[in-house]
């Protein structure tokens, strides 16, 4: 979202002022940036209403590219970079509606042939969820490691390999053995997805961890532009006159 004097309906007023005046120019820049911060705060708060338990990573996604003397526009929007999936990629469908982008874990499972092309993952009944209702990072890492789909970190592979899988299936005195397997055939008696078989003394249990589904299509639910523009209209004029008063 770009905020300038036209967006907030102040262009005709500012054009009539002596823009060569340092006071006017500084008031203009001050108003753009103060309004930008207000829009940031409001759109972040809107996330709390739009999403169920948004993660800190998501709540920290909105950034402000401040206005300067040579660029009289303040830009507010989701980051296009980050340690995980760039927030811009997964917030886009929530802002505009439409199809969800692939997650990094889904691309990794596709590369090793576990996840069929064109399909996505959602939590299964047996998935361990984090405090935000998402499949826990540890569970994802264990699955990727099991299928030798994990990325290397600091030059060290995170994949289990045959020896690691054999050890996991055997278990220990205090930890039950387990194994993951993928169901890719829609006609199989189990639903398509990643399942975990746990060897419990006297029996063997299986439970779905990740389900394979067709590409999810999202309804627009994050009112990023609506909330941001409303705040910009309300606050820019106030901040401009604050800047004029010094």
Give structural notes.
This protein is α+β, with helices and mostly antiparallel strands and 246 residues long. It folds into 2 domains: 124 residues, no CATH class; 113 residues, no CATH class. Helices cover 40% and strands 19% of the residues. The protein contains 8 helices and 9 strands. The protein has a 4-stranded antiparallel beta sheet. Helix 2 runs antiparallel to helix 8. The longest helix is centred in the N-terminal third of the chain and has 29 residues. The chain is elongated. The two termini are 27 Å apart. The model has no long low-confidence stretch (mean pLDDT 86).
What is the topology?
Layout: E1 2-3, H1 11-16, H2 22-50, H3 56-59, E2 62-65, E3 74-78, H4 87-96, E4 98-99, H5 104-111, E5 119-123, H6 137-146, H7 161-170, E6 177-183, E7 193-200, E8 203-214, E9 217-218, H8 224-245
Antiparallel strand pairs: 1-3, 2-3, 4-9, 5-8, 6-7, 7-8
| Beta-strand content | 15-25%
Mean pLDDT, nearest integer? 86
Distance between the termini: 27 Å
Strand order of the largest sheet: 5-8-7-6
Poorly predicted tracts of residues: none
Principal-axis shape: elongated
Q: State the helicity in percent bands.
A: 40-55%
Class computed from helices, strands and strand pairing:
alpha+beta
Strand count, sense and barrel status of the largest sheet are: 4 strands, antiparallel
Instruction: Compute the number of structural domains.
Output: 2
Q: What is the CA-atom radius of gyration, in angstroms?
A: 25 Å
H-E string: EHHHEEHEHEHHEEEEH
- Quickly count the helices: 8
Number of DSSP strands? 9
């Amino acid at each position: 979202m770009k905020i300038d004097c036209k967006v907030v309906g102040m262009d005709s007023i500012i054009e009539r002022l002596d823009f060569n005046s340092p006071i006017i120019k500084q008031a203009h820049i001050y108003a753009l940036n103060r309004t930008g911060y207000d829009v940031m705060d409001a759109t972040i708060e809107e996330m709390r209403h739009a999403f169920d338990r948004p993660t800190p990573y998501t709540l920290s996604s909105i950034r402000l590219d401040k206005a300067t003397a040579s660029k009289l526009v303040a830009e507010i929007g989701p980051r296009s970079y980050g340690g995980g999936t760039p927030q811009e990629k997964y917030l886009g469908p929530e802002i505009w509606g439409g199809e969800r982008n692939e997650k990094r874990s889904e691309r990794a499972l596709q590369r090793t042939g576990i996840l069929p092309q064109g399909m996505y993952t959602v939590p299964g009944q047996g998935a361990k969820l984090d405090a935000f209702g998402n499949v826990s990072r540890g569970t994802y890492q264990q699955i990727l490691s099991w299928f030798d789909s994990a990325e290397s970190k600091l030059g060290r592979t995170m994949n289990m390999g045959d020896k690691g899988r054999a050890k996991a299936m055997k278990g220990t005195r205090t930890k039950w053995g387990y194994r993951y397997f993928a169901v890719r055939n829609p006609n199989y008696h189990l639903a398509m997805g990643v399942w975990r078989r746990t060897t419990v003394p006297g029996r063997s249990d299986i439970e779905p961890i990740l389900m394979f589904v067709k590409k999810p299509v999202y309804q627009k639910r994050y009112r990023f532009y609506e909330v941001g523009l409303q705040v910009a209209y309300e606050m820019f004029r106030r901040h401009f006159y604050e800047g004029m008063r010094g």
